[in-house]
Fold:
Amino acid sequence: MLTSVDTDLIRVLADPLRLQIVTLLAKETLCTTHLVEETGARQTNLSNHLKVLREAGVVETEPCGRFTYYKLRADVIASLAGQFADLAESARAAAGNKRSCP
Structure:
């Protein structure tokens, strides 16, 4: 049973703008222009965050003419959710365990 969670991925998703991007991409595949409109972030800032998400494997790109579309990798999010589910199960199983003090 897994009792730890991918901390690198949590750090990536902990940023509010990156979490907003992931939330938007969970609903549809979007290009940078759409993401700028939806988030209100500047394009350069948004591009930097998308690079972090891409390097972490959270999103993948799809070129379409002169635009680049971004798509959420559901398998990565599902894996993280599974790690949290395993952690919760471990906590439930250990609820009665208590280490005594010396």
Q: What stands out?
A: The first helix runs from residue 7 to 14. Helices lie at 7-14, 16-25, 32-39, 43-55, 74-93. The first strand starts at residue 30 and ends at 31.
